[in-house]
Specification:
Elements (H helix, E strand, L loop, with lengths): L5 E9 L6 E9 L5 E2 L3 E4 L12 H12 L3 H17 L1 E7 L49 E7 L14 H12 L3 E3 L11 H8 L5 E5 L1 E5 L2 E7 L5 E5 H9 L7 E3 L4
Parallel strand pairs: 1-5, 6-7, 6-8, 8-12
Antiparallel strand pairs: 1-2, 2-3, 2-4, 9-10, 10-11
Length: about 260
């Protein structure tokens, strides 16, 4: 099936020389035909201090230097970006190495280190994982899509974590959804954005779960900072969160979490 727009995919697989050596190859799909690069060695260390710097520019430039170190990968990316600026297109970074999910991909700079890729109006950044639940969504009568918004702003956040402005976040969500998405009663008051309350609200069936909360990594495992019933921080492991949602009879078809 031909692609309407160009798509560049950078695939990162495990290498042969230990945990910090990988192989990267580029697949450039376009209506005129596909282009493939040979696998190139790639060295990425999740423990590199540059990737954990408080300045996102330091993280983004360090990641770009290592990812685009191979000239062939740089050339394919620059060519794909040039065409995408005129015709539209997607960039996907796919990794089979779980350790690399902890890297700050949101801060990635362009190969020249001049600007971050994810701060332009033409860039829509999203992390996603393949679902373990292979059930197909139940299709009903065509209707307007619905969304549940949950915004967690625990009262006892660590000093290193900025408070979440729930009113501002909800206003932005309403503006972006407009009249195309029907919003269910949002969970934004203190103690509402808990794991139990979110699960209960999802039982009636919605198409989209939009969760706003802080997140972190604990020994490489994602943790979501939701609330308990008293409005205080309640860390929930990402795997548990996903499992609870997957157990629902009608899980949402799409879940998004712009966590910080």
């Amino acid at each position: 099936m031909p692609y309407r727009d160009a798509e560049l995919e950078l695939l990162i697989g495990a290498g042969k020389d230990g945990d910090q050596t990988y192989a990267v190859e580029a697949r450039y799909r376009q209506p005129a035909g596909d282009t493939y690069s040979d696998p190139m060695p790639l060295t990425l260390s999740p423990s590199d201090l540059s990737f954990h710097d408080a300045n996102p520019e330091v993280c983004g430039r360090a990641l770009a230097r290592q990812l685009f170190n191979a000239q062939e990968i740089r050339d394919v990316f620059v060519g794909a970006r040039t065409l995408a600026q005129n015709n539209g297109g997607d960039l996907r970074v796919t990794t089979e190495a779980s350790a690399l999910h902890s890297l700050p991909w949101e801060t990635l700079f362009d190969p020249d280190g001049q600007r971050p890729l994810a701060v332009t109006e033409r860039c829509y950044l999203s992390r996603y994982l393949y679902a373990r639940d292979m059930r197909l969504p139940k299709l009903g009568v065509r209707r307007q899509s619905s969304a549940l918004v949950a915004i967690a702003n625990p009262s006892d956040l660590d000093d290193n974590l900025a408070p979440v402005d729930a009113a501002r976040e909800l206003a932005q969500i309403r503006r972006h959804f407009g009249n195309t998405i029907q919003l269910e009663p949002p969970l934004v008051e203190a103690g509402q954005a808990s794991m139990d309350r979110i699960s209960q609200a999802l039982r009636d069936g919605v198409d989209i779960l939009y969760l706003v909360c802080h997140g972190m990594l604990d020994n490489g495992e994602p943790v979501l900072m939701v609330e308990n019933l008293a409005g205080q921080a309640e860390p929930v492991r990402g795997e548990l969160f996903v499992r609870r949602i997957a157990m629902l009879d009608r899980p949402p078809r799409c879940a998004r979490s712009p966590a910080g």
